[in-house]
Amino acid sequence: MNNKKIYAIESADAHCLSLSQLSICTQMHETIIIELVECEVLTPVEDKNTELLFHPEDLSRLSRAERLMREFELTPVGLALVFDLLDELRALRQN
Q1: How confident is the model at residue 76 (pLDDT cuts 50, 70, 90)?
Q2: Choosing a second label site near 47 at 20 to 30 A (CA), which of 7, 11, 21, 76?
Q3: Could you tell me the pLDDT band of residue 95, with boundaries at 50, 70 and 90?
Q4: Is the Cα dihedral 57, 58, 63, 64 positive or negative?
C-alpha cells in the first residue's frame, strides 16, 4: 500500500526547497537523495525547468531516513520498504 503524497506544481509554494538546498540542510549527498526519490521514499515536486523541488516537511522524512539508514544499515530499497510499512501502520491506526 502506497500512501505517499503527490503534489501538483500548482500547489508548490515559494517555501519549497531545491535538491541542493535539501542536501545542505540535511548534510546528505545529492546522489543519495536522488536514490531515495527513485525508490519513492521522497516524492518531490518538479517545476517547469525539471528541477526537483521538495516541501519543507520532507526535511523531517529525510532526517528520519538518514537515521534509519545509519542505525540499521539500510539500503534505499530497504528503507522504502520500511517507510511503506510505517505508512501502512499509520493508516491502519487512523481507521
Answers
A1: very high
A2: 76
A3: confident
A4: positive
Q: Which domains does the chain have, with CATH numbers?
A: 9-94 (1.10.1660.10)
Distances (CA, A) of 87 to 10, 12, 13, 14, 44: 25, 23, 25, 27, 17
Q: Are 53 and 45 in contact (CB under 8 A)?
A: yes
Q: What is the C-alpha radius of gyration for the chain, rounded to an integer number of angstroms?
A: 13
What pLDDT, in 10s, does the model give residues 47-68?
656 788 999 989 999 999 999 9
Residue type, 45: V
